[in-house]
From TrEMBL:
PANTHER family: LEXA REPRESSOR-RELATED, TNPR PROTEIN. InterPro entries: MM3350-like_sf, Plasmid_pRiA4b_Orf3-like, Znf_MYND. Residues 6-44 form the MYND-type domain. The keyword ATP-binding does not apply. The keyword Plastid does not apply. Keywords: Metal-binding, Zinc, Zinc-finger. Signal peptide: none annotated. It comes from the Eukaryota. SUPFAM superfamilies: HIT/MYND zinc finger-like (SSF144232), MM3350-like (SSF159941). Gene3D superfamilies: 6.10.140.2220, MM3350-like. This is MYND-type domain-containing protein. GO terms for molecular function: zinc ion binding.
Length: 289
């Protein structure tokens, strides 16, 4: 609140109120504000909020643990964050994904015996939802193009009848990270519901008001897509570490340098920590709008 001229009646007042949405227009009170709204609504844009600084880690990765710090605009959708993660970690965007806000107080899932698992999977293959244990997540934000993905069936394990689902292109980062109902949530991005590459998303702060994604820091070469979960990735790293690689190891290295969806012709030797922030940032600028 400040003193000045009301933008509608043009009278000088000791106290003015700002439009709660854009924060730009100043009024002497509710009467003038209401009078202004039918025209002001066309130019009234929500006030921009500072970016979110996210430290994203693949917690199962070791030596090195792979992580990136990404500055994410407050108004970005979760679909845009998905693209940013794909670029920053060097993924090939060939599999499905979801984001979940994990409830840290959720009861653990029971150990499921093979018969129960098979029954549940069969029911799910018929399109029926069978909950796997108690609810784990406050919300699940899903790939809007899931139907194109071969691995989308496996994502049923992450569905729950008491966990609402929303499409990633319709949900905004700022709105979700500010939700009072799940302030305690631990955010997770899961890529590839077959190999289950889990990424922990830790909110480490707020930056400036900015419309662009930026990767400010990171370590660890991106994982080869379809490497065969974490053990497969470890096997590949071991192949590059071997003084005398076996034929099987040579084959793996050849696959990684030529055939993987996110192949790297330079291989991994001495490059396990490799991250090129300049390349990542130029891809973020040219690919996310
Ligand atoms: Zn007025
Ligand atoms: Zn306004």
């Amino acid at each position: 609140m400040s003193a000045g001229k009301c933008e509608v009646c043009l009278e000088e007042k000791p106290k003015l109120v700002n439009c709660g949405r854009c924060g730009d227009r100043k009024y002497c009170g509710a009467v003038c504000q209401r009078k202004d709204w039918p025209t002001h609504k066309y130019s009234c844009q929500p006030k921009k909020q500072p970016s979110w600084i996210l430290k994203i880690t693949i917690p199962d990765s070791r030596e090195p643990q792979i992580h990136r710090t990404i500055v994410c605009p407050d108004g970005a959708t979760f679909e845009q964050l998905h693209y940013a993660i794909q670029i920053a970690f060097g993924w090939a965007n060939k599999h499905s994904y979801d984001f979940v806000a994990r409830d840290p107080t959720a009861e653990e899932r029971p150990v499921e015996d093979i018969m129960a698992l098979m029954k549940r999977r069969a029911a799910q293959d018929n399109g029926e939802q069978r909950d796997f244990g108690p609810r784990q997540n406050f919300i699940r934000i899903v790939n809007p193009n899931d139907h194109k993905m071969a691995d989308s069936l496996h994502s049923y394990d992450r569905r729950h009848s008491q966990t609402p689902e929303k499409k990633a292109d319709k949900v905004y980062i700022g709105e979700q990270f500010n939700k009072k109902e799940w302030k305690s949530a631990e955010w997770e991005y899961m890529y590839d519901h077959g190999d289950n590459w889990g990424h922990e998303i830790e909110i480490i702060g707020r930056g400036k008001i900015d419309d662009a994604f930026k990767c400010t820091e990171g370590n660890g070469h991106g994982i080869a897509e379809d490497a065969g979960s974490m053990p497969g990735w470890e096997d590949l790293k071991n192949a590059y570490r071997a003084a005398k690689p076996t034929d099987e190891q040579k084959e793996k290295m050849h696959w990684f340098e030529n055939m993987a969806s996110n192949f790297d012709p330079e291989g991994l030797k001495g490059r396990e920590n490799f991250v090129d922030l300049d390349v990542i940032n130029s891809l973020l600028t040219s690919n996310i709008e």
